Amino acid sequence: MAFPHRPDAPELPDFSMLKRLARDQLIYLLEQLPGKKDLFIEADLMSPLDRIANVSILKQHEVDKLYKVENKPALSSNEQLCFLVRPRIKNMRYIANLVNADKLAGRTRKYKVIFSPQKFYACEMVLEEEGIYGDVSCDEWAFSLLPLDVDLLSMELPEFFRDYFLEGDQRWINTVAQALHLLSTLYGSFPNCYGIGRCAKMSYELWRKLEEEEDGETKGRRPEIGHIFLLDRDVDFVTALCSQVVYEGLVDDTFRIKCGSVDFGPEVTSSDKSLKVLLNAEDKVFNEIRNEHFSNVFGFLSQKARNLQAQYDRRRGMDIKQMKNFVSQELKGLKQEHRLLSLHIGACESIMKKKTKQDFQELIKTEHALLEGFNIRESTSYIEEHIDRQVSPIESLRLMCLLSITENGLIPKDYRSLKTQYLQSYGPDHLLTFSNLRRAGLLTEQAPGDTLTAVESKVSKLVTDKAAGKITDAFSSLAKRSNFRAISKKLNLIPRVDGEYDLKVPRDMAYVFSGAYVPLSCRIVEQVLERRSWQGLDEVVRLLNCSEFAFTDMTKDDKASSESLRLILVVFLGGCTFSEVSALRFLGREKGYRFIFLTTAVTNSARLMEAMSEVKA
Amino acid sequence: MDCYTANWNPLGDSAFYRKYELYSMDWDLKEELRDCLVAAAPYGGPIALLRNPWRKEKTASMRPVLDIYSASGMPLASLLWKSGPVVSLGWSAEEELLCVQEDGAVLVYGLHGDFRRHFSMGNEVLQNRVLDARIFHTEFGSGVAILTGAHRFTLSANVGDLKLRRMPEVPGLQSAPSCWTTLCQDRVAQILLAVGPDLYLLDHAACSAVTPPGLAPGVSSFLQMAVSFTYRHLALFTDTGYIWMGTASLKEKLCEFNCNIRAPPKQMVWCSRPRSKERAVVVAWERRLMVVGDAPESIQFVLDEDSYLVPELDGVRIFSRSTHEFLHEVPVASEEIFKIASMAPGALLLEAQKEYEKESQKADEYLREIQELGQLTQAVQQCIEAAGHEHQPDMQKSLLRAASFGKCFLDRFPPDSFVHMCQDLRVLNAVRDYHIGIPLTYRKYRYKQLTIQVLLDRLVLRRLYPLAIQICEYLRLPEVQGVSRILAHWACYKVQQKDVSDEDVARAINQKLGDTPGVSYSDIAARAYGCGRTELAIKLLEYEPRSGEQVPLLLKMKRSKLALSKAIESGDTDLVFTVLLHLKNELNRGDFFMTLRNQPMALSLYRQFCKHQELETLKDLYNQDDNHQELGSFHIRASYAAEERIEGRVAALQTAADAFYKAKNEFAAKATEDQMRLLRLQRRLEDELGGQFLDLSLHDTATTLILGGHNKRAEQLARDFRIPDKRLWWLKLTALADLEDWEELEKFSKSKKSPIGYLPFVEICMKQHNKYEAKKYASRVGPEQKVKALLLVGDVAQAADVAIEHRNEAELSLVLSHCTGATDGATADKIQRARAQAQKK
């Protein structure tokens, strides 16, 4: 099973360097506050931190106790407090409250705030407004890239999606540019750059600026990575909204993979304890099934179990010496494999149980119908029933969005009725969620007139300077038509199948969605790489309504080896799903490429919807 | 060539001193030097003359005039002295002219006579007037020492970081000391003064009498004292014509000399070379110059004119009205090569090369001689080194030629020293040029503080930009250190030319600077702004590629709006934020909001900030924009977050609904009104029935009612809120099944025809594991879903029958997939048979 890579597939660069760099920097920062100290860590940073420096490393550098930054007063008695936080105003308030409480009590302690991945002026402002700017020392921990796997780098910034695509806040773009700069410093600059989307373009431009400012040094390096492709999440919402059926994606949808590891509950481990399992290429069993369609996984696992049994069985008929050999060399590996195998079988069972309960087949059928664009009425009533039955607020919302995007917005009647139904089922506070979804272009109404273009032209008239282009861009993102149907036709996203799609031996990337749909994002990457430009894709770009760019640095291109030219860094701004990762891995195997993924965070439909939801405080 | 050593004068057995002309002076002085206050900067620096310093008349023609010349006598500046009487002049290490006035004020001028700043030496000095002043150089910078009319000393060791020190009183001092000087020992500046036969040393704390060891008897007063360039040595001239030379610490005597001239010398300075054992002092009288050292004889020169001595690191510069000369000890390498009848390897090599040029075979002989002694390397080195000490390019060339000739016969002679010497000499010759007038010696350039960077700075200071750039290019200095730095200086000078229009200046600067790396346009712009040329500054900023650099200056120039758009262009949100807060304080609220309105990026950034920190401002922002949609959302959010009481929440929702109406979003308005009604109702339900109703959704409210057995109320609710039938049926079905009220469920199912069909009834019953009830409903399921229903209740056989009856292939497969094991074997066969039959047809 599991398709092997072509023999000429390029080697991946060693990304563990990024971890070491981050660890050394953190240790340096901790040492800046000599002596015993308590460390307050923001919840979101705990898992990433754990991947970089575990508790014993922290203890080595005189971290006494660890606390979580939360809405509770801290009971630390240490004389030195260190805060490791994301640059958020909320955190600043927390710190300010703590410091001011100390002040009231007449207590003086040393405070140090470490911002990761960078500090924002607004945070310092808040510290100043709260009157504690002079009491704390601020530092930056430029930890922006966490290698989750050999080919997957995550910035672990889930808020990127909401901040940029909903609030229009561009502050993380600088962080992205810095991360790209770091990569190009370590692994050589990228000779070929492509991108689509406004954020991609801005990140790219900022990164170029950084490269230009830092002259010399990196220029002479042989590029290790031949291509970089930047992609905004809003170029392709559809793929992210679909239910995932590839094993890794399904595990993410069902159990939620957090920072590369997953908590398998008692129902999976078949014991009374939960187990935290790291899911990456090091897990041999997982590595073979992660990219597989779920329907194949069981078969594979049982085959594997049989093989394992056979290997165990070899014991019989061994003489003492062979047995000794077996115990000392193979047994440990077999046991490990055994353990992993039983875990994944447990996970599969658990997934099956959950999915059958929720009429998974029906759901998938509806999704496919939406993607292909037939039986819209039927799908709409399915969604309605879904809402009426209160199956799941997030799932219902997801289906509504999928319907809206594939259909270029809902027809006014459905738009109203579905929303009304939804509010009745899941509570009226979701009115705000709908306003968010509308703003992000995820759930819209088919408008007869284009009210937004009117605003747009008015504004462009008002402002004549350079920024005007950016404003119109901003508005066009609001007014975005998805044009999914037309794009799908142009790019042939719905494969025509004669007979059953063979999921065991997939022919194209559509296998990640049971052969029903080729992920749009991956198709764009494929097409551009094939042409090594956007040529001939003008119509698609126009339909996507995004600005695209391509740039080839001939001097560097000449220097790049043919091997590195088949190494491609794909940057997902706003998150990527495991299905997309699997699809591109498949493409890589087919074409002899290797893909490296850089994402602001690993996402899925539920995370996307949650980011848009307005939660009651 | 024969007379090359003609100007060499031996002092004792081991050293020669020579004096050669640097320049013939171009300055055409009318006055005698003695009528002027004179100050010359070390390291071949400029000369300042203050003419008529002592005239008190106020007539314009008689006013003192301050002239500044280069070392070659080229005029650099001339200005009429309009301030108070000057006591002393001196140059700082940065080549700034310090003019110490009688009232203790020190005026600082630039090389081109431009006034820089002034400072005062304190009140005490002001009251007692300045009697005498010295400018001195230490490793910390340039200091000023002042002797006041009250015979007290005040001193500042570094004028750049002015700290005044009043030195302790000298006991019993009634008149001015006969001579005094500043010393610098252990990084502390001290003052040594002579009163009659006594010497006193003043430091911060105390005044102590000192006696030089081995001083000849009979001294009744000291007429002159001199401290060496490096503060290591001290020379004292007594009224007996006796000169004592020793260490500045006064612990050791080096030598003494009696010149038998009792007249006080005009000047006395040290003339020594670093790392040389020879110590010599040059003493100047009106018409006589004497070099004395550790030798019974002295060297004597006659001075034709009034001359002035400038101590240098490795010799003494002597200038008069007509000439500028340099007197120094002949360096070892030169001595070895040029000494008469020298057989040193360098001398032989020089000779060999000359013969070679004459095509004489003697060249070979000489060369052999050196090689036989194995001294060729040494010979080459000597020639290279000697070339550095020569002033005349011809002589430099012949020495270098000899070195290059010698190199040919060496296998592995590292080329660096030769190459560097050639380069250095080219640079030195260039700056020594008459027009430039910086007579640097090789030693000063190479060995001491004066690096190439400093030299470039000095050229820039003299506005000799092209030469500086040529030097950089010649030496291939990295652009950032070299050319760009100079261009930046040039640009800063250029912006001060007020007679040129802004456009021309900006264009000229951009043409020259282009995109040279390391040039900061914002620095130049800052300079332009400093000169009051705001428009020019803005133009220059346009060329600055880094927006981050543009913004702070734009803010300073109060071009906040431009700053904002630049910040936005930069993509750096922090920068945008900085400008925003600046704008917020600068503009009134309305204008601020208007500015934001045109900048969506800034607006969203500010909104994000307000959302967390200033909610009220956020509301105002939406109000200002008439953004009723967002305003509505804002109030809804407020109704959840801020308000505890129902009344408050309803009120907030009412405001929100009004806003939605204004935004023409009737859907949202209606939804909000429904929410208000629901809230009120929930409140009533809680009051009347108890339990938890608040904040439930409509659906959940109805479910809770049914679960609580309030069926009537639930139906009322459904009517009031127009819950669609489908939903109501789902809702009731689920709730009743949860209650396991099968009786009521059956009643309900029969109340009218189900709008959702009967399959859900089957499903839900099965979920509650009630197969018995489920079967009841399975029979009522419509034909399309019948198979599914039957399979759900586990009646595979009947399902198969129905499927066969329907002749539906999909249904058949579905049933088949449910056939498990032996029990359903018969059914499976039946289906297969039916299939086969169907195919036959």
From TrEMBL, chain A:
GO BP:
collagen fibril organization; collagen metabolic process; endosome organization; intracellular protein transport; lysosome localization; megakaryocyte development; melanosome localization; membrane fusion
The UniProt entry lists membrane topology as: Peripheral membrane protein
What this protein is called in its record is Vacuolar protein sorting-associated protein 33B
Q: Which InterPro entries match?
A: Sec-1-like_dom1, Sec-1-like_dom3a, Sec1-like, Sec1-like_dom2, Sec1-like_sf, VPS33_dom3b
Q: Where, subcellularly, is it found?
A: Cytoplasmic vesicle, Clathrin-coated vesicle; Early endosome; Late endosome membrane; Lysosome membrane
SUPFAM superfamilies cross-referenced by the UniProt entry? Sec1/munc18-like (SM) proteins
Alphabetized, the UniProt keywords read: Acetylation, Cytoplasmic vesicle, Endosome, Lysosome, Membrane, Phosphoprotein, Protein transport, Transport
GO CC annotation terms, alphabetical: clathrin-coated vesicle; early endosome membrane; Golgi apparatus; HOPS complex; late endosome membrane; lysosomal membrane; perinuclear region of cytoplasm; platelet alpha granule
- Which family is this protein grouped under? Belongs to the STXBP/unc-18/SEC1 family.
Upper taxonomic classification of the species?
Eukaryota, Metazoa, Chordata, Craniata, Vertebrata
Its Gene Ontology molecular function terms? protein-containing complex binding
TrEMBL record, chain B:
| Taxonomic superkingdom | Eukaryota
In which broad location class does this protein mainly occur, judging by the first location in its UniProt entry? membrane
> One short Pfam family name for this protein?
Vps16_C
Tell me which residues make up the Vps16 C-terminal domain.
Answer: 519-837
Where do the Vps16 N-terminal domain residues begin and end? 4-420
Coiled-coil stretches are: 349-376
Q: Which family does it belong to?
A: Belongs to the VPS16 family.
Write out the function statement from the record: Plays a role in vesicle-mediated protein trafficking to lysosomal compartments including the endocytic membrane transport and autophagic pathways. Believed to act as a core component of the putative HOPS and CORVET endosomal tethering complexes.
| Record protein name field | Vacuolar protein sorting-associated protein 16 homolog
Q: Which organism is it from?
A: Prolemur simus (Greater bamboo lemur)
